[in-house]
Amino acid sequence: VIIGGNIGKNKITPNENAIDDYLFCFESLFDDVDYFTINVSSPNTPDLRLLQEKEPLTNLLVALQKSNQQKENPKPILLKIAPDLSDDQLIDIIDIVLCTKIDGVIATNTTLERHNLKASNKLKSETGGLSGKPLSNRSTEIIRFLAENSDKSFAIIGVGGIHSAQDAIEKLNAGADLVQLYTGFIFEGPSLVKKINKA
After folding, report:
1. Is the pTM of this model over 0.85?
2. Catalytic residue among 42, 136, 139, 150
3. Half-sphere exposure (CA, 13 Å, Cβ side) for 92?
4. pLDDT tens figures, 183-192
5. N or C: which end of the chain has fewer CB within 10 A?
């Protein structure tokens, strides 16, 4: 079983001290996980997404890579990004990944957008991250953008709105190397994994 460690900063930690939180988590989990997800994209942690900007994100990944490369057996590091980034921000992400030589990107986390949500106005006005089918098209667009604009220079894990084998195939055809399930796993059940593998 492959175990990933998804790490982020504490809610009460100011962004200027965020690197300390990430390094603490990285060191604490290093012997117990197979790879790390650097989460700077959760919409539920105040100001966390500001760490996706070029300077703070570069500084964070450089610090983690420095610690990683000092280990006897460095672990793969992947960056989990938001689906709400602009094309210019995605170009910055590509530059940062190539510059810091991390292993890849997980595209994407949950969204703040509500335009694909078929629900009451009350639900549409809720805060926090939205997952599942309303996220599917945007996450696939981001996967394609990253793959095309990076010339497939790093691994891409596709996630967001995968509720069927066809959804997974669309992510793979867009340029994902692997896929992850969250909401689809809950609503469709574990058999979805078998259906995807068969397809």
Report:
1. yes
2. 42
3. 14
4. 889 999 999 9
5. N
